[in-house]
Every structure is written in structure tokens, then in C-alpha cells.
Known about the structure:
Blueprint: H1 8-21, H2 24-33, H3 48-55, E1 59-68, E2 87-97, E3 103-106, H4 108-111, E4 116-120, E5 126-135, E6 140-144, E7 167-172, E8 180-192, E9 199-203, E10 215-217, E11 223-230, E12 241-245, H5 246-259, E13 265-266, E14 269-273, H6 276-282, E15 290-295, H7 300-304, E16 311-315, E17 318-319, H8 325-331, E18 338-345, E19 348-355, E20 357-358, H9 361-364, E21 379-380, E22 385-388, H10 392-398, E23 406-411, H11 416-420, E24 427-431, E25 434-435, H12 439-448, E26 453-460, E27 463-470
Antiparallel strand pairs: 1-2, 1-4, 2-3, 3-6, 4-5, 5-6, 7-8, 7-10, 8-9, 9-12, 10-11, 11-12, 13-20, 14-15, 15-16, 16-17, 16-18, 18-19, 21-22, 22-23, 23-24, 24-25, 24-26, 26-27
Amino acid sequence: MHRGRPSAWATALVIGLLLMSCTPSWAQRWWSEMGTGPQPSVQTLPDFITLANRLSPTVVNVSAETRSSPTLDLPQDLSPFDQFAPHRTESVGSGFILTTDGYILTNEHVIAGAREITVTLSNRRSFAARVVGRDPKTDIALLKIDAGTPLPVAPLGNSDDLRVGQWVMAIGNPFGFDHSVTVGIVSAKGRFIPGNYDDFIQTDASINPGNSGGPLIDLRGEVVGINSAIYTRTGASMGIGFAIPVNLVKPELGQLRTRGKVTRGWLGVYIQQVTPPLAQALGLAVPQGALVSQVLPDSPAQIAGIRRGDVITAYDHQPVQDSQELPLLVARTPLARSVVLEVLRDGRDRRITVTITASREDALIKSRTTDQMPAAPHQAVGLGLKVEELTPKLEHELGLSAPQGVVVTGVRAGSAAEDAGLQRRDLILEINRRPVNSLSSYQQALAAAHSGSLLLLIQRADSTLFVPLVRQE
């Protein structure tokens, strides 16, 4: 042992005495840096027990029964008096009570096609329900029961106030297990699912078949969403559930109650997302906005002067970052109101005033087909495409009333055309905004394109859309 060197315990004692003589703030900072200082207070879990007890009585089981006649290949000697019972199916979902006199909100898909609807309360009392109104676009339906006594009500909250990471609770009937309670957080907001109208709330609170139509509840005990869908490969919850924001639904409730349906504002355009390849082909610095692929006749957009190929970047002073935001903005606009659209056309910004009218979309929806046409003589022109002139026979086969363009009759596997998603029966109407009316004009447009990136306007069934195509050298 070396007498000139202090021992380890003596060193620690000296450091301790020094810290005692220092100011408290300095010592606290030193201990904190060493990982042994005062720790932040631990937040306790919310009181889910009180929340569940208060809201569970407002949640109902919705049972919808449908009947369909079987389609059978009957034996020839079967007596005409022999009967086959109709096939009965039952779907089970959830809902919640809006008013003390028995108005109930659920998903439209829960009661779609139902001949009989039964609502069961938390106290096991069951009632026949009638459909007051429905809206397939937002997937909601308003039901009414006559319970004879005042019912507990689920208060509606403000879904715009939700923040990612916030606690939420779901109550419903997953797999028929009545009034199951699950909790989680808001995982994301503004989620768009292809084929749906809503900008969904995403949550990791377990949502399973049977939860559809039930409430998503915040810690104040208010409904902020209507549970509607799950992302799954197994049929069970995988931690990704979606709910319709209640703020999207609240403005529709009055129309559902008085008119049975929802009338929305309408612009009269078909749009598509501005992808990075499209942005490059259009000369845009950033891939955002809504690209107008078709303007419907006699629509507000056509009357105002909106053109195919315009990129709508703002609507009524609200930026349009994603194309799917535009339909929601238009739908929320009061009828007969004039709004200003900011549009990028041929590299220049324009402001166009449009007067919004009632939607005529349902009357304009036409059937689409994806049937493939048989192989036909073609003209090979590179890009992995085979095209040919429109002949009277092809015009008849494609059902064209105003024929134009050239028709795609073949797409080579592994080619740029296949990568771009082109299909047989597509009509090529433009190349880099130059009209294509024949094989000759098609080839001229290709020759005039100096870059490797092409912007094709195609017609597929009754719709038109822009397709970026990177030419392979």
C-alpha cells in the first residue's frame, strides 16, 4: 500500500463533501449528468374504469339480417311445388346512441342490404330498428328505435383536436362479445384508404370484426370517431384500426335525419395524385396538388374554365397537398358558394373562381370494364407498346361515341410501358400535351419528345388519366 496515494473511499468522501458545499442547482445538474439525479415524475394511466362505466351503456349491438334466394341447378324432374327456403345471413356490428329518444349511429356497411335490423342495449333489451338515413360515401347510417324510456347518450367531441399519441378507447362487439373495451393511442391522422371517402383516424386500440360502427372515445368521454375498418391479413386486429372522424359526420346528421341522404358540393372533375414521375413530366418542383384528368360536361369546373391537365394547388385559400384532400374540401362547401381555385397550367399560376353546385356524380357514373381484347394486328413503335389505328370495328368493340387517339393492343413484359401501368384497350390521346389522332401523329409526337420522360394522356373505359412513361434507351 502506497502511503502517498488516497484510497478510493477517501476520494469518494472528498467528492461528497465538495458537492455538499456547492449550490443545490450545481449538484443536481452533476447528479443528473451522472444518471443518478432526480427523475421526472411518472405519469399514471388514465382512469379507464370510470370512462368505460360511463360510456358502455351508450353502446349498442346492431344485428342486420339479410335474405336471398338460392340459385340452384334444379333437376328436371323436380316438382314445381318443391320449395327451397331462402338463405339467411346475419351481420353483427356496433353503434352508439345519439339522442335520448333513440337515434343511433352506426356504419352503413353494417346494415347494407338488411331486411331486418335489431338493436340490443347494454341491459339486454332488444328493439327493431328502422333506417332513417344512410350515406355510403362516409359509411355511416342513422337508425331509430322506440325504447319507451329516455336512453343514455354518447356526447360528440371534436376530432380536429386529436393529437398523435393521445389515449383513446374503443367500445364495441368484436366477434359478438358484447361491450368489449380496448384502449390505445392515436397512431396517425388524415389516413386515406383507396376506395374510401374519409380521411381516417388511425389507432392501435384493438378493432376487430363487430367493432364497426362503435365509438372511438377520448379521455373526456366524448366520441371523436366511428370505428370503421381494420388493416388485416388474418381477419383479426393487427394493431392498425381506422375510425371516421366525428367532425366529418356531424354536419351530415341533420340531412340524414330530415332527408335520409346527404347532398354535397360538386366540382365535376376526375383527379389523380401527382406522383414524383408525374411531377417531373409536368415540370413541377414538388409532387403535390390534384391533377385534373377529366372535366365533366356542364359541370361547375367546365363552366369556370378548368381544363384537363390543370394542377389544383389550393382550394378556397387552403393548400391542396394531396389529391385526396380535394374531394373533402369540395364536399364541405355550401351549395351555390363561389370559391377560388389556385391552378398551375403550363407552368403559370392562375386563380379561377368556381361556383359549387349539388353533386350529380351518381347520375354520371358509368360501368367500367377491364376485359382484355383479343390479339390484333399491331404497329410496333418501341417503349414496349403495340398500338394501332382506330378502325370502325375497334370503335364498336370499345363502345366509343367520339373516337380519337390510337389504341394499345399489346404491352411487352418488363417494358417501360408495363412499369407505367399501361394496358391493352387503353387509348392514347396525347403525348407531352400534343394531340394524338392517328399513328402518324403518334409517331410525330414521340419524335418531338426530346427527353426520356413522356407524359401520356390515356382513356381507359370512361375515364381519362395522365401516365408518366420513362423511355428506355
